[in-house]
Amino acid sequence: MMSPTGSNLKSNHSDECATVQPLQETQTSSIPSPTTLPISALKQPSVEGLCSKEQKRVWFADGILPNGEVADTTKLSSGSKRCSEDFSPLLPDMPLMVNTVDHAHSTPVEKPNSETEDTRNEIIQSPTSQVPPVEKLPTNTGTEGLPTSASFTLDDDVFAETEEPSGPTDVLVNSSLPVASTSDYRLLCSIDNVCNKMSLLPDDEDSLPPLLVTSGEKGSVPVVEKHPSHEQIILLLEGEGSCPVTFVLNANLLVNVKLAFYSSDKYWYFSTNGLHGLGQAEIIILLLCLPNEDTIPKDIFRLFITIYKDALKGKYIENLDSITFTESFLSSKDHGGFLFITPTFQKLDDLLLPSNPFLCGILIQKLEIPWAKVFPMRLMLRLGAEYKAYPAPLTSIRGRKPLFGDIGHTIMNLLVDLRNYQYTLHNIDQLLIHMEMGKSCIKIPRKKYSDVMKVINSSNEHVISIGASFSTEADSHLVCIQNDGVYQTQANSATGHPRKVTGASFVVFNGALKASSGFLAKSSIVEDGLMVQITPETMDGLRLALREQKDFKITCGKVDAVDMREYVDICWVDSEEKGNKGVISSVDGMSLQGFPSEKIKLEADFETDEKIVKCTEVFCFLKDQDLSISATRYQFAKEIAMACSAALCPHLKILKSSGMNKIGLRVSIDTDMVEFQAGSEGRLLPQHYLNDLDSALIPVIHGGTSNSTSLPLEIELVFFIIENLFE
Questions:
Q1: Which residue blocks in 526-630 are alpha helix, DSSP H?
Q2: What pTM was computed for the model?
């Protein structure tokens, strides 16, 4: 962080806001209605349309019963037989010890799934390709996050055990904060009095982690019951109009559990709340229930603790990443791990979804691990074809047969390391391969030029191979099926739509075609990708076109068959940024969809009162001509994040107790202008916090403006207030 220096920069705070109440008085509802707010240097957007001040009634941290009656809390009776009216004032938390947990026992069962009823599979008889019209799209910058994502292994130390406390089993928590919904990050503000252990999972097979409970009364006080039983939980989950139950895995991580009927089958539905505080997408899992299963599969809780610990180390799970197991999971050694995907066309109705972004975890088998590691899109699409979902199911089935066996003979043996995982196919994000009858089009985003150059420079002179992304623009996709060790090709698509554009997972350009073959070039479908055989001269032209970022057309067919030609077009496109779907700003509720973002990793955490303020992400509002966020701008954003963290640090306790555990800071800087605003859940922070931010930010901003290469800069930083946990 830069040293404070004199500055001519001013923050245009308005004196009209002198009547603003202190933070603890103004935070009287989960999302306040518009009121007189302090104005920072950046003009305050309208906050009309936000939720009203009416407090929510909550039953098990979710709401009143659907029939409108107050929930009966006497249904919750642990071994201590304590009901809601028996709760005493604030009780001390009891120390918990973390060790190992046994696996939940269950019987493997194979159950076909049909999540998307309208899907179809077709055998591909002949290679076809086509060029759809390329529309010019507005340019946004996509940037690579500095912390890399990869496949992770479930650590042995995630198994936890708990010593039985000798005191009362129920603890009242923050009584001044109205309870939010179970998917609302502010719900974590109500449990900061629980033990600050990394894992609150008990070690014995029967015990469950603590449960977050409210009485259902308006303005009720949340209660953490430390020792709920499976019988009580099942009674609550199977009751008429039942709501999810919320477990406390640690003071920063909640898990909502519900018995859900999805595509006519009964599932355990798990949804996390709290991973965003570490910069990790939230996770949902739909696990098919076993016949007569009456205990919650606790191994899923262990998985979430592993993901939490990995995120603490900067190991984030992103779309098509995986976690693999080194031992038995869900009572089977055949379960190999989880593949995580971003839902696209799948049905999500009637599911209590976490805040965006979130991923869905799909249970995979041991024999499927190689594909999850080196070519996850093949596995994702194969799952979709098997369970009649497009592009993939969201469900997990224990004990199912693996969809791939021994590797055998596949083109992937030439492109990836399926044994030691030392190298894999170069995948370029947002690169799409579209095929129609007689034409193929490979769409390369202009902003991915540097990635293309990495592929060119690392490939040999005869072969260029590139992995593509799943295309939401295509109406179907090639799928690779392994039958008796032989790889075949199908196409999976959602019915109700004519199959015009088919996506492919990879393309290989092979420059060994001889001129004496009688062909100009050849294009064919190989497994779930496209193979293009060209002459050495055409390969030289292709490489030159890629280096110069120019379009290139390959004519396929016999030299003397003019009427039987096919075409492969390589097109550079100004692709639209489609990331951050459903993400909204904490400052004013503005949609952040389409704006690129990067994760931020500061060199040090800012901590006080056993609470940490953590900056997780920066959103960039870039100009049309900008194609990437420079290292200079990124460093400037980190300095601003450190200054803001330092300014917020003395106020962490009161901010969190008032429901402001997620804060956004939007900064606009140019050579002659500085504006900023900070808010939480759509309203600005009170005046005295903005004054502290002024004092901290102005020196840093003054130093940054001396380097014109970082300007103009318009960003939004995201901060979370979390508890400092220990093992």
A1: 536-547
A2: 0.78
